[in-house]
Amino acid sequence: MNKTENHQKIVDIHSEMRYASRMVENSQTQPLYWEASYEIVLSLMEAYPEVNVENVGIEQLYQWIIALPAFADDPALANDHLLNDILREWYEETISYG
Question: Whole-model pTM?
Answer without folding.
Answer: 0.70
